[in-house]
Give the backbone structure.
Amino acid sequence: MNTPNSFAVPGFWPSSFSASDALIGTKEYGQLIAADANTLYWIEYQPEQGGRTAICRLRLEQKGPTGENVECLTPDNVSVRSRVHEYGGQSWCLLSDQLVYVDAADQQLWRQSLSDRSVQPLTQSPDCRYGAPVWDRSRNRLLAVQEVHSATDEPDQVVNRLVAIALDSGQVSVLHEGYDFYDQPVLDGNNQVAWISWDHPHQPWTETCLVTAEIDPSGDLLHVTVRVEDGQSLTQPQYDAQGQLHVITDISDWWQICRVEGAGDAVQLTPLSGQQNAEYAAAGWQLGQQSYQLLEGGWIAYCHRNGIGELHHFEDGQLQRLATEYTAFRSVVVIGNSVFCVAYSAARNASLIRVDLSSSAVQVLEGGEQILPDADVSRSSHLTFNVGEEQSHALFYPPENQEEDADAGLPPVLPPLVVFLHGGPTSAAYPMFNPKIQYWTQRGFAVADLNYRGSTGYGRRYRMKLAKAWGVADVEDCVALVEHLSTEGLVNSNHVFIRGGSAGGYTALAALAASNCFTAGASLYGVSDLKALCVSTHKFESRYLDWLIGDPVEHAERYRERSPVTQADQIHCPVIFFQGLLDKVVPPEQTDLMAEALATNGVTVDVHRYPDEYHGFRDPCVQQEVLEKELAFYRRWI
């Protein structure tokens, strides 16, 4: 870590790396599909196109620089995005000569010809949303998750089900309903279908079931059977070439790949030695996660282990780690001898890569730009620190800016700290190049990205530590992290800031109320009134608080005590708020009430509202403004 010169106080280091530069690096890739070993499709988040998502294609056999061979297939006025469960996920599928995708504007399925790029609607049901489409080739139809909304849009009136959509007519028929939620329908290439379902009050990371059925000649389902359940979190069913069903389950504490035997027993395929602390899945916030692919006699998968991502090739009883220069992975597909996936490193933007299984050679197909000089990149170290008798984890990024050379004879000056809190709260921070974090470290801030108890990536027991403990365990971890970094002499304990979005915004506000160790804080569309959230949020999370806090009637006092809006008189430091006015997950009223309560108590507040934003900001101009205003706000208190 470089120390600043006498003219630049940490937090005020000059940097040419602007908020706009940071957002250029936010291009994201996902939902990969390989048509063959030389043709790759994916979904791409395009900040330069107003933050839309589009389907792109790369034909590897074409000559010329790889980047010049990328085709954007989605019409200019379209964004491809599902809002099933509000958070969406898998939003398109590939047919032999066409694409079918969900249009973000109307949530309907549309067909696009790959020959002339023409589009036409497939479904026309304005009260429905669609997601996770799968091509049922032999029946000329799609299977998909359908979410039906009533006029009132009350959570208990929203119906989720598994449907079939005829490709020739767009007619929708219900295949199965009765569960509160459906995800990841898969076919075995013959007459079997499997999917994941769960019911309230569970979430996909607490308890789900694996369901299978036969498809009769008319296309209906027969012999619907729950194959695996019993208190497990199951995800990503997949059939191998022989029709054998596989799934990922956390029955062993860690999400591991298993083969499902006839009686429903899950036989673990991942090696028992050395890999028991590896998670081969993440929390199912979005539809259609794809972290593994089956091979003849093995599999390819990525996992999170000891605070870092790894890509594994398991075959003939041997485990090999691939693409070791990368620190996190997403969306893996395998065609022939080629593995395609999204890969993240410590110093470059996200990349689309191909790994040759015969040679382990890695080829960058798209992305991977280095937008900061190597000497300017702050690289994370994984921290494990004590919280009472337990432990928590974080990624620590020291300030780094090669222009700020230390003056000889000047004592080192400890940097201010920004604590980052991920959303969820059952999500995770991963060790990857994040331009928004580099925006802070370039200016002399240290950043600690906290994986508080309840985060994924550290096993089921760690994840379950947040049960009935939200607003307690996570807050304790925030305070313990600051104490640890201060004791180790890594940060200036007089200049500590905390920020988070959504659930992270809640934890930030709760931590400000619980401790005086923070100088200021930021809440981005954060929760402030737990009881109000119970009655105003969407179906997917409408019973989540039962697990995080307790029954809202039986534990009403607990809801009141842990709500930041009722703890506003305990917050004495400045707070800045950012809120989208179209947010259905955390309604704008939550931010308004919290800001008003703080202002009434004489606390400095700064509120910024965005009329066209939902839960999580997508407009790059808005994201840029948030970075700049948050930085300016913190600098007022250094």
Observations:
- The domain at 372-528+574-635 is CATH 3.40.50.1820 (Rossmann fold).
